Amino acid sequence: xxxxxxxxxxxxxxxxxxxxxxxxxxxxxxxxxxxxxxxxxxxxxxxxxxxxxxxxxxxxxxxxxxxxxxxxxxxxxxxxxxxxxxxxxxxxxxxxxxxxxxxxxxxxxxxxxxxxxxxxxxxxxxxxxxxxxxxxxxxxxxxxxxxxxxxxxxxxxxxxxxxxxxxxxxxxxxxxxxxxxxxxxxxxxxxxxxxx
Length: 196
Fold this sequence. Notes:
There is one protein chain. By secondary structure, this protein is of the alpha/beta class. 31% of the residues lie in helices and 26% in strands. Strands 3-2-1-4-5-8-6-7 form an eight-stranded mixed β-sheet, sandwiched between helices. The model has no long low-confidence stretch (mean pLDDT 95).
């Protein structure tokens, strides 16, 4: 694992209590799980669909289940984890409201992060007639795994509509926290939420 800690890893770790339980949905190759397990002695579990990513998690000694998040989280009981993490995965989910309702059912608290489509550079790309490609949206329109594009304002409106209480948020751009005009200058949004 890299010695330089990603800014979003650090921000998320601030909300996770030592020796708690964490479920990381769409955990990828397990880099965050490996990091948080070492930093805070957290009991970690991952859910991932990619064969290669599941294999990478297993090679790191992580507990991981291969599952499509679109199928829901019926495997897990209500409030069965102290924290559920959905990091930069929400935009790849078709059943957005369903997965958000499921994660606040399964977790006492949840962390959700996503790229902010309303970042000023993305707005300019659209004005110039092209779909944005950036560090936070690194794919071209024809090969992106993203099926939804959302903004900070969009997420906060949906959270209110479906009964998700926002406890805290951190907005980042290139690793630095953005505190003013976040929907314009932030490229990555990270929220700590729970069921209202």
